[in-house]
Specification:
Order of helices and strands: EEHHEHHHHHHHHH
Mean pLDDT: 86
Structural class: mainly alpha
Pfam family, one: BTB
InterPro entries: BTB/POZ_dom, SKP1/BTB/POZ_sf
Distance between the termini: 63 Å
Organism: Mycena indigotica
Strand content: under 5%
Low-confidence stretches: 1-8
Bound molecules: zinc ion
Protein name: BTB domain-containing protein
Radius of gyration: 30 Å
Oligomer: single chain
């Protein structure tokens, strides 16, 4: 519809500044105004459905329109920026398109303060946790802090496991700003868990209960060593394999969570380097060495990660 179709004497109100057409809906009956003066024209019933705070607010008497020609909508001044409000509404408000910018973890923290702590939108907890979980791989230490802030124990545990991949116990690691709400006790617990997992890694490497994964191979065509396929050869294996595990435990002492990533390129490169330099099998035959390497990788993939994960799980509090 063009401007020329409007009635000749209609009031010419300036259009409100909004971030999306959806926030300028003519049927809206309340306006949220951000700290940077952007208006969000919304529906009270929708806000009231997710937030008991809004529901109570809207039961209070509303101001009367001073002029019959002007629709006076109640206004709620918010202390958050329009970017934060837009991201917050995009999580759950009907019809809101995805924001044009990706939410940072710092913005998400403000959104969560708003949604969970300020407006008590309990029905959004699953959505909020999903958003926070997106940052687990990139910033586990901050996710741990935010999860603890909201008493989300399961997510805090997930984050603590991810933190095992970070060298938290080195002097260069600094706490992110998200930790400002947490007590020193939380940091102590996380570090204790980190240290406990390193100790479990070292202890597991010393155990002898490994079923080395030979593949049946009657005899090496190069050096004539007999491979029985039942766990032994005439060369033996246990000492070099345990030496390899011990070196792995040493390499991952500050990042024990990385020790379970047996499929990663860096893990396999490390095994190959140790295998070829410090912890090789007791033979120079290239064919036998290759068989040992295959058996070593296979043993690690099939037995090492799960046993390590089980150990880490028992230490979780
Ligand atoms: Zn051989």
């Amino acid at each position: 519809m063009s401007d020329s179709s409007e009635a000749p004497n209609a009031p010419q109100a300036a259009p409100p500044r909004t971030t999306s057409e959806i926030f300028n809906d003519p049927s809206a009956d309340v306006i949220l105004i951000s700290s940077d003066q952007v208006e969000f024209h919304l529906h009270r019933v929708v806000l009231g459905l997710v937030s008991p705070i809004f529901r109570t607010m809207f039961t209070l008497p509303q101001p009367q329109a001073p002029d019959a020609h002007v629709k006076a909508l109640p206004k709620v001044r918010m202390s958050e920026s329009s970017a934060v409000l837009e991201h917050m509404l995009a999580l759950w408000y009907p019809g809101v398109p995805p924001p044009t910018t990706t939410m940072t973890l710092a913005e998400l923290e403000v959104v969560l303060e708003l949604v969970i702590l300020k407006y008590d939108m309990q029905s959004l907890i699953t959505i909020a946790q999903g958003q926070l979980r997106n940052f687990l791989a990139s910033d586990a230490l901050a996710v741990f802090a935010v999860a603890m802030r909201h008493s989300w124990q399961d997510l805090a545990k997930e984050a603590a496991k991810e933190c095992l991949k970070l060298p938290l116990r080195t002097s260069t690691y600094a706490l992110p700003a998200s930790w400002k709400h947490l007590s020193p006790h939380s940091l102590h617990r996380l570090l204790q868990y980190h240290i406990g997992c390193h100790e479990a890694l070292t202890a597991l490497a010393k155990t002898s209960a490994w079923d080395y994964d030979y593949v049946g191979w009657p005899q090496c065509p190069n050096c004539s060593v007999k491979w029985t396929g039942s766990g032994t050869t005439t060369l033996g294996t246990k000492s070099f394999f345990k030496s390899l595990l011990s070196k792995l435990a040493q390499e991952y002492q500050y990042t024990p969570g990385r020790a379970v990533e047996v499929g990663s390129l860096s893990f396999q490169e490390l095994v190959l380097r140790l295998f070829n330099t410090e912890c090789g099998p007791p033979t120079t035959c290239y064919q036998c060495r290759y068989r040992y390497y295959q058996a070593t990788i296979s043993t690690l993939q099939h037995q090492w990660p799960q046993r390590l994960i089980d150990e880490f799980e028992t230490l979780m509090v």
